[in-house]
Amino acid sequence: MDLGVRQGLHTTHSTASITFSLIFYGSSQFPLGDKTAVTVTYSKYFAEVGPGISISANRKNCQLTFGVAVPSGFSFGLATADYRGYYQLDSKVTGAQSSLYYFQGNLNQATSRNTIVGPVDGGYYTYRSPFDLALTNLSPCGTNTVLNIGSDIRASNANNTHGSGYIATDSTDVSLTQTFHFQWQTC
Q1: Which of 8, 112, 127, 132 would staple 181 via disulfide (CB 3.0–4.6 Å)?
Q2: pLDDT at 100 over 70
Q3: Can you give the pTM of this predicted structure?
Q4: Which has the closest alpha carbon to 85: 40, 145, 24?
Q5: Shortest CA distance to 171 belongs to which of 44, 58, 61, 56?
Q6: InterPro entries from the xrefs (predicted)?
Q7: pLDDT digits (tens, 9 = 90+) for 14-26
Q8: How far is CA 26 from CA 2, 61, 102, 162, in A?
Q9: Which residues, at least 6 apart from 54, have a Cβ–Cβ distance to it below 8 Å?
Q10: Residues 148-161: tens digit of each pLDDT
Q11: What are the Cα distances from residue 101, in Å, to 71, 90, 128, 147?
């Protein structure tokens, strides 16, 4: 897994005083950058379904936990989750992606979801899933916090039990990528 940072939302406040520390992750070291987005690239994060494939292969998840030093007078939440990957789905077989995030000690959670239904005869896919900005779960104002981001991918053949499919793969060096864009605001 590789974690990079891409240009995202802009604020009038310098992001130099914002600090992200990766507390928990499922793989290798992650470089961090301008604090407007986090991109996670998975090389072995895929779900598959079909005759003879174990049910445990139908769903995979990943949990990332970040410590975030938030400057005085600011709070943030996630604005969008971008998904990019490779899909192969027989007729009526579904592939789904979802993200959930929350701040430690806060009961509010925000989710985004995307589902595609086959047939998809192998191809790359890009989707942006916005979080409802009116309901965006924001960090506590101007205080250090812990941000948890959980992601989940699933493949299901419930509507075609003889069908097969997968979402993402590592066998052809294709990866599933998720980019989480942050929304910063004054508080």
Answers
A1: 8
A2: yes
A3: 0.70
A4: 40
A5: 44
A6: DUF4360
A7: 444 444 554 443 3
A8: 10, 10, 18, 33
A9: none
A10: 888 888 999 999 99
A11: 20, 31, 16, 7
